[in-house]
Amino acid sequence: MDKKLVAENKRAKFEYELLDRYEAGIVLTGDEIKSVRLGHFSLVDSYAYIKDDECFVRNSYIKEYSNSFDAGRYGDNSRRDRKLLLHADEIAKIKKKIETEHLTLVPTCAYFVDSNLKVEIAIARGKKLYDKRETLKKRAMDRKRDNIE
After folding, report:
1. pTM exceeds 0.85 for this model
2. 3 vs 53: CA distance, rounded Å
3. What is the pLDDT of residues 128-146, one digit of tens each?
4. CA end-to-end span of the chain, whole Å?
């Protein structure tokens, strides 16, 4: 099982404390998957939500595939909502945890497993400002330590 990283949401790791992680498939059109294979995919500013016992990711960006016959025909769908494929029991568990503990669902990275695109989503709790400062201090100390060694 070889994983090839396509996109990473580094901002999510800074803004949120990531608790539980889940691997989900994503529903894409043919042109979208071609564009993702070319590396034109971003999870920055995206988030996931559950509606009617289905999970979706909103605001993820996939650049329009330019070599397509239908390019630009159906308007700009680069940031449309895309369905995530999870088992019903996983969705129920996620929904319960999010509602009871007031958490959020954030996509952290996207990668290919064999020829299938997977999106890793995480149940997350927002960090406070002082937690973010601590993260920055820790990163600076680690960088300084690595430069000395």
Report:
1. no
2. 28
3. 888 889 888 988 999 888 8
4. 35
